[in-house]
Design a protein that fits this description.
This protein is an alpha/beta fold. Helix content is about 40%, strand content about 20%. It binds 2-acetamido-2-deoxy-beta-D-glucopyranose (3 copies).
Length: about 500
């Protein structure tokens, strides 16, 4: 509905008063309800087939497999139902949801979990207390329904890229049995270890309850107590092979394992300056993507903004990470918790601001790379900004693929089943929160909306949100990788 229509409707309702508005509601209800489910299903099916068509318009060139180098890190994920785990260890729901930068004891775990669980916001925290972390992992092992899988941003992105037809160089430290489960198209650069780092993924569905708290959407709370990943162990081996490998794309992620890690004085700075030099040495033919994550350590973030972000042409992040980065760039504090279900207009405005700020910085400093691609994944939609005349191609198809991958990942199935999906995005969206902005209808047969502004194209695709959640963790990595793969 166009804004002026809304306003007209609003004023006429006021004129005729409550009786009319009640009538309008009743009529609307009567009009919709008989074919509600049938109509909705048909709509979802139409959106799905259009997204599939958009995705398959272009493919990865399987003859000349694109080469992608991805760092850093890797771990074994143990995935459990978060509330079941807390119940099993007898942790009572806290009365005080509270943010903690890292976790030292069970009470802080309860407070931190409650803080993110109710809004349903993705979060990841370092557990400083090894005893507590071992207890949690032991209890998880005993929980019925637990699952183990290859985890960490880099290996998940590597797996997705290999699956989609790329040859991958993966910088990570793994145990040997772990190497065996990786695709044949993945070459690992890094050391072998006996005990890989473990990440404990506490998943919860939408509407789950823990004491007085009810989750507003499905998501996960992750805890880890890594020993290898924070040191970017594989960086040197990765760097040695990078020159010969000559990738089309270099992806850097997994740096959140450094967040609030108790490094020795100067250790983190020296790791990051090594990383900066690795990224700067990428040839002009190699595009560079940085995948953001859940960071709260302001010093680390400041270092990333100084030495990592400016060296990337492309950034990927979710609806929590976008406002966080923007807030820091504007000289404010970390935003620990943002709206987990933001409107399209809000996200697009934040993306435009981030794009402009980073490019202004790049122009002023004259170093690093211009930001030419920005991909934001949210529960309800995928959004991309891609600069005109750059190497990034197929933005429309890439946005569609990212959207389909979101459903496939969360439902744990390559097939998209519309009986397990719903659209959260409204029937139309405003392109900005600025007054008088254009509204774009969500058309079933052309669900990916793309348009040009200034020197870039914006594409927005609705997500067929999975309603029978298999797993949310790793979603951002799978989605980001799927978006990138059609653009290189
Ligand atoms: C670490 O966790 C254990 C087990 O929950 C607890 O007994 C201990 O007090 C914690 N240590 C600190 C320093 O909080
Ligand atoms: C994410 O992508 C990987 C490929 O690395 C795939 O094996 C995995 O099943 C995907 N995750 C989910 C939950 O679909
Ligand atoms: C930022 O954080 C500091 C320390 O945590 C606090 O003192 C300050 O008030 C915060 N500033 C803003 C703008 O929130």
């Amino acid at each position: 509905m166009a804004p002026d229509t809304e306003r007209r409707l609003g004023s006429s309702l006021m004129k005729y008063g409550t009786v009319t508005s009640l009538l309008v509601v009743l009529v609307a209800y009567w009009y919709r309800s008989p074919q509600d489910s049938g109509g909705l299903d048909a709509r979802l099916d139409a959106v799905l087939s259009s997204l599939l068509r958009a995705e398959s318009k272009v493919g990865v060139n399987s003859a000349s497999r694109p080469k992608v180098a991805i760092g850093f890190g890797g771990c074994v994920d143990i995935i459990v139902d978060g509330v079941e785990l807390l119940n099993k260890i007898g942790l009572q729901p806290t009365a005080t949801p509270l943010h903690h930068d890292y976790i030292q004891n069970a009470e802080q775990l309860a407070e931190s979990f409650a803080y993110f669980f109710a809004p349903g916001a993705a979060s990841e925290r370092f557990v400083m207390n090894e005893t507590l972390f071992s207890q949690l992992v032991e209890a998880s092992r005993e929980l019925p329904g637990n699952r183990w899988s290859v985890g960490g941003n880099a290996p998940v992105m590597a797996g997705r890229m290999a699956l989609e037809g790329c040859d991958v160089l993966l910088g990570g430290t793994f145990s040997t049995d772990f190497n065996d489960v990786l695709s044949e198209h993945i070459t690992v650069a890094g050391n072998d270890v006996d005990e890989p780092d473990i990440h404990l993924i506490m998943e919860y569905p939408s509407g789950a309850t823990w004491g007085p708290y009810t989750s507003r959407r499905a998501n996960r709370y992750i805890v880890h107590s890594d020993e290898h990943n924070p040191y970017l162990d594989s960086m040197e081996a990765f760097e040695r092979q990078l020159l010969d490998f000559q990738p089309d794309l270099l992806v850097v992620g997994g740096l959140q394992m450094m967040d609030n890690f108790p490094f020795k004085e100067g250790e983190r700075q020296s790791l990051l300056s090594h990383l900066s030099s690795l990224m700067s040495s990428a040839s002009a033919e190699t595009s560079v993507h940085f995948e953001m994550a859940s960071f709260v350590d302001e010093e680390l973030l400041a270092e990333l903004l100084e030495g990592v972000v400016p060296l990337a042409d492309s950034l990927g992040m979710n609806e929590q990470e976008l406002p966080n980065l923007l807030s820091l760039l504007r000289g404010s504090n970390v935003t620990v918790l943002s709206d987990p279900n933001p409107r399209v207009a809000t996200v697009l405005d934040q993306m435009r601001a981030l794009y402009s700020l980073l490019n202004e910085q790049h122009t002023e400093s004259g170093r690093g790379r211009a930001l030419t691609r920005l991909h934001v994944h949210t529960l309800a939609f995928q959004a991309m900004i891609v600069r005109d005349g750059t190497r990034w191609k197929n933005t429309m198809s890439a946005t569609a693929k990212a959207s389909l991958t979101a459903h496939r990942h969360v439902c744990g199935s390559a097939e998209v089943d519309t009986s397990k999906a719903r659209l959260i995005m409204d029937d139309s969206f405003s392109v900005s929160r600025r007054e008088g902005s254009e509204r774009i209808p969500l058309e079933e047969t052309r669900p990916v909306s793309c348009w040009r502004e200034r020197d870039y194209q914006i594409c927005v695709a609705p997500v067929l949100v999975c309603t029978e959640v298999f797993q949310t963790a790793g979603g951002g990595d799978n989605i980001s990788a799927a978006g990138l793969v059609l653009q290189i």
